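hi!! sorry for the late reply, been swamped w classes. u asked for the two structures so here they r. pasted raw, havent cleaned anything up. first the sequence of the first protein and right below it the tokens
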Amino acid sequence: MNKRFALKLIAACAIAASATAGFAQDVIKIANIVELSGGGASAGTNFKNGVELAVKEINATGGILGKKIQTTTADTQSNPGVAKGLTQKAIDDDVFAIFGPVFSGSIMVSMAESRRAEVPNFTGGEAASITEQGNPYIFRTSFTQATAMPKLARYISEQAKLKSIAIIYVNNDFGKGGLDAMKKALASSPTKIAAEISTEPGQVDFSAAVLRAKQSNADGVFAYSNEEESARMLRELKKQGWNKPIIGETTLTGQKVIELAGEAANGAVAHVGLTVDAPLPAIRAFRAKFEKEYKYVSDHNGMKGYSGIYVLKAAIEKVGKLDRKAVAAALHTLKVKAVDQPGVLMDVSFDSKGDLDRESFLVEVKNGKQEVVATLPPLGAGAAAAPKK
């Protein structure tokens, strides 16, 4: 009797396992591993919402290759160790792709797991070192610092015509990568670096850093930190009467920074890979849909998550089957036009390292809002190309 019962139990388990496997084949599993608490909560939440909005749209129109996308979301707590563990858990769940983490320090740790399992992994992290490890399964949804900084350096030297600049940066993978990339980009320009001022992740008091920038007598400051720290830095610059140019990258003028910094954000100029204020129909449509869904205005991170899902969709459709290795290989030479896949928001191309290239924007904060003041061509279009007003 016991033997007969055991055989029935084994048979039942086999049937259940078979059903589960069949179900898995009917969906495309995607793990959203992002910062929902800690210092990266703003970036991670926006990225997650962008991913989920794209998935909702794609599923409503039949999915990818006739299969619906199924997502799970996990909080890294802005902790690299937690991110690594969650990535391993997602791999154990046999996901097709992983989105996140957003923070460079976390993806630098966790991407070893997705590489080992040969799972495509999309990140919003900008540290140049992320794609310099030769990892064939890592792909960006944002510019690498090696692409962004040359564009910004040209602005600093040729448009702003600053003879010297003080760099205030955050002392982590993201900040140090940006510092190195900016130093390299400015090396052959007339602009000299008057001071390199290190700050810490989560730093609250920026009085000493700003004082050092003032004492350097630089013609402007390049501010490169995370969103909340950027807002504190802007408030301190205003408090100490700084009246010279404040220039940065995407994290200096994001929506969350503008809200936290208030009037202190006005006048800040930044190069941004993505902005909901760009005068492009696909981006305007995204902004309206995101605001309707979540009741607030997305920042660049929401756009990264959203466009990243559509990039994955384009790659799967190009391959024509759910093959992770083949899709990863296709992504390395992928070129997608927004006219064919509006969800990518702008024409985009990927190189052999997983880095992307596309148009980007120069914005200035005016009256508490980002205003696009120039559109910059893809870096591949020629380094000497002039901004188009």
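now the second protein. again sequence first, tokens right under
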Amino acid sequence: MKENRKIRLGISVGDLNGIGCEVALKTFEDSRMLDFCTPVFFASNKTISYQLKALHMNIVFNGVQQANKAIDGKVNIVNVWKETPNIQFGEATEEAGSFAIKSLKAAVDTLKEGAIDVLVTAPINKNNIQSEEFNFPGHTDYLAQELEGESLMFMVTDSLKVGLLTDHVAVKDVSSAIIPRLIRDKVNTIEKSLIMDFGIQKPKIALLGINPHSGDNGVIGKEDDEVLRPVIQEMANNGHLVYGPYSADSFFGSDGYKKFDAILAAYHDQGLIPFKTLSFGQGVNFTAGLSAVRTSPDHGTAYEIAGKGKADHSSFKEAVFTGLRIFKNRTEYKELTSNVLKKQRIKR
């Protein structure tokens, strides 16, 4: 990133019939946000104008053809399409899914080119995005293909961070998907992210059990004893501060999570139900382990309130600030480790 400009924050607008545009625009309706970054929406001037009028909002924006033409101090719109979408607030339509993917692909391509520094994605509908051109269960899987690294779905706040061993996997397939290599990879990814993205030098990580009561010594399943425990012990012996498996039903209620820098849950609902219960509206979905920074709010399209101006933008705003902090931490980490490597080469 050039030092003479602010961090460019790209925004994919998500499902146009949902609350994505609303929460993103509300975030930057406060002009003070422009002191922290330069927002770049991937949509079209007409689309954003329609949303602003429907939501009774007044934002002066700058239309550009490419993100590298974005102007600091302004809300910028990259014109990704010339068509006029038929916006039907609250409806899950194939057309809305198509435009959501157009916005996402344009934003990701621009992120890969380096013309934006951080990506914040507004919510999509996992059903209406499906097509021959896009066959992924959600953002995370698509980003894992497009950006280098080992992706990890990481739900974060200042005080609570929950990663997933398996994310968009059917419950019936969870136990067979959790194998030693997967556990090692996810622990390494979450540990590296805590160090590089959050500045935690010696992170402590807790793993939740796969079965109720972590299997009760094999009475309720053997996966915890035969798969999880051996890998946890192996990694602990190699210097990783990894502990568990802990019984998931009591782990959060007893405040056990406060003793750790991050928790690695076995599957989606095991991790996200307690996370959203404890932090809904303030939580951020961060895709850790990739070559670029991507965050999103912790909620979905919320069709039931779309177009009514009632959406709370707190989580989207937090996703912006979290993305900016991670980008700065990662940049600083790279500079520090690069300097260490240079000194080592000189000594040799």
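hope this helps!! also noticed smth abt the second:
Residues 85 and 95 are 7 Å apart (CA to CA).
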